[in-house]
Design brief:
With 137 residues, this protein is of the alpha+beta class. It is 38% helix and 14% strand. The termini are far apart. GO terms for molecular function: peptidyl-tRNA hydrolase activity; ribosome binding; translation release factor activity.
Length: 137
């Protein structure tokens, strides 16, 4: 069963349009096509507590010390396409925090695996021992 989708209201997002680097010719110096999208992960009421904790625990360079996610989108030449790209990347970031990590179950190596490992070690030791015993003169 899938959990309901997380919907982030428009009021929680803050967008700023800046001049973009990259392709665009003379247009790049005149039009602010790049988008800087900010989303306050730490104080957002629309995120479930577990998702918020997982997102803040990530070591993502886009999240500031205050818990604000900053996404810079300047891949495309148009402002509209960059806005769409920034929102898609925000959705992917939030989605990555929805899945709880699977707990690791400690296992023991089988008897056969232990035997194979020790045999390989013995084999390597034999090879190295034979190298020292040879008289090359």
């Amino acid at each position: 069963m899938n959990a309901p989708a997380i919907v982030i209201p428009e009021q929680e997002l803050s967008e700023r349009f800046v001049r973009s680097a990259g392709p665009g010719g003379q247009n790049v110096n005149k039009v602010a096509t790049a988008v800087e999208l900010r989303f306050d992960v730490a104080n957002s009421p629309s995120l479930p507590e577990a998702v918020r904790a997982r997102l803040l625990a990530k070591r993502d360079r886009r999240v500031t010390a205050e818990g604000v996610l900053v996404i810079n989108a300047q891949r495309f030449r148009t402002q509209d396409r960059n806005r769409q790209d920034a929102r898609e990347r925000l959705a992917a970031f939030v989605e990555s925090g929805r899945a709880a990590p699977k707990p690791r179950i400690a296992t023991q190596p089988s008897r056969a695996a232990k035997a194979r490992r020790l045999d390989a070690k013995r084999e390597r030791g034999t090879i190295k021992r034979q190298r020292t015993q040879r008289d090359w003169d």
